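Is this the right way to post structure tokens for a design question? Let me know if I should format differently. Anyway, here goes:
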């Protein structure tokens, strides 16, 4: 599923798991319009589910992921915060989830490339220690193939 190369679109030649680490917004758009569903070899629905429920790694039971919105539209920042430090109010420009969700930027603003980079960089730092960690085809596939990385 995650090793199959795309044979259409902007990311032809890349695997769907590579696209998620490159441009999650494009992946979620393509899946939403049925481009990945129509080509079942890409496993769009299962991959979308996994990419939307990534487990916070390590011994961080008392933490949640905070997604902060910018003054305009889109995602401005992502960080881990202690659960007891969360004080959400109705007018808040941030919200929390108990998992990392690569679909958040496209939910907030469909063409938010910056938000996509922010959430991918957060994921790379959280899992691999650096935004500079090279996500090769093999590393992308290994990440999305490992069910321990995802919540049910």
């Amino acid at each position: 599923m995650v090793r199959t190369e795309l044979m259409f679109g902007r990311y032809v030649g890349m695997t769907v798991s590579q696209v998620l680490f490159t441009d999650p917004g494009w992946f979620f758009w393509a899946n939403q319009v049925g481009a990945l569903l129509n080509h079942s070899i890409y496993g769009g629905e299962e991959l979308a589910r996994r990419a939307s429920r990534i487990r916070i790694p390590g011994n961080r039971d008392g933490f949640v992921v905070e997604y902060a919105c910018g003054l305009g539209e889109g995602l401005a920042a992502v960080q881990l915060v202690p659960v007891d430090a969360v004080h959400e109010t109705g007018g808040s420009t941030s919200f929390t989830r108990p998992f990392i969700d690569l679909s958040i930027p496209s939910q907030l603003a469909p063409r938010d490339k910056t938000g996509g980079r922010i959430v991918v960089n957060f994921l790379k730092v959280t899992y691999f220690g650096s935004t500079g960690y090279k996500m090769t085809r093999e590393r992308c596939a290994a990440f999305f193939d490992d069910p321990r990385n995802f919540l049910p």
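Format looks fine. Someone answered above. Worth noting: Residues 16-149 form one domain. The longest strand covers residues 75-82.
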